[in-house]
Amino acid sequence: MTESFPETEFIWMDGKMVKWQDAQIHFLTHGLHYGSAVFEGIRCYNTPKDPAIFRLEEHTKRLFESCKIFGMKVPFTKKELVDATIKTVKVNKVKECYIRPLAFYSYGVMGLNVSKAKVQVGIACWPWGTYLGKEGLERGVRAKVSSFARHHPNAMMTKAKICGSYVNSVLSKMEAVKAGFEESIMLDTYGFVSECAAENLFIVKDGKLITPSLTNALDGITRRSVIELARNELKLEVLEQHMTRDELYTADEAFLTGTAAELTPVREIDDREVGLGKRGPITEKLQELFFNAARGKNKKYEKWLTLVK
Ligand code: PMP
Fold first, then answer.
1. Does the beta carbon of 62 sit less than 6 angstroms from any atom of ligand 1?
2. 205 is catalytic
3. Residue 1 — pLDDT band, cuts 50, 70, 90?
4. What angle is formed at CA 20 by the lines to CA 110 and CA 167, rounded to 5 degrees?
5. Taking a C-beta distance cutoff of 8 angstroms, is the pair 289, 231 a contact?
6. Which terminus of the chain is more solvent-facing, meaning fewer CB atoms within 10 Å of its CB: N or C?
7. Which residues touch 2 (CB under 8 Å, ≥6 apart)?
8. Dist. CA 308–CA 83, nearest whole Å
């Protein structure tokens, strides 16, 4: 697991580049106490031309949508944050990295009425290997259905990456890790499969690609990319529908998608082998298509890349 990370030199904070070690906030920062913050996770890949940020516009749009859902006013425009993200990667001179924008209610207000609280924004980046490990990309990971339910949409809105809501994911992830699995699969409060702690989930069954509908899952940008690649390049039928736990057990293949985990096969769910208990052929083809697109090796998908020159 690649969960520690190397430091880079600069972090963008509220319009200025500050040294990594100087990017400090006060103990009484509102977001730290109540999870009152929103974030994004973005990746930059090296391409034959320059490093390129994968689907930067879409990630920035989702950041603003998260803020809208939460009712938080960002003191920057979308264009300013797009430019700031490019600049952060550029000044740190990294070719491949993970990028973390965060908007948070800052110091100055305590209690739950945030109407007068100031919003601060930061963007950091650092080289970060694939979240569930390189071996996981090839062999697949073992996943466990969580005893923790994904949020009911009237308890916490899952289309937004609101920091506080990720405590639900941490509980679920830690339960799975302590039980000896790499990732958790979360059911919704109706018992249908929703998503993983930090990834969307797909299965392959009888040649069709199936993924849970987005009722209480994040509208993953990797998910969208994989659906487009599967339909356009593999001519697969892709279904977004309710999915039950037993459908997971009888799937021919399974994989999860996310910016951090990229496209990772699932070889076992709840101690049952998925298909042949290893990466399936459709999963492998989709991985190849995804990484080629992200690394600028497929002209057709250059539309997804923002070059960092
Ligand atoms: N679901 C959750 C809960 C996540 O945190 C993530 C990671 N952002 C995803 C799905 C995958 O989304 P994306 O492909 O946009 O990274």
1. no
2. no
3. very low
4. 45
5. no
6. C
7. 128, 129, 130, 131, 133
8. 10
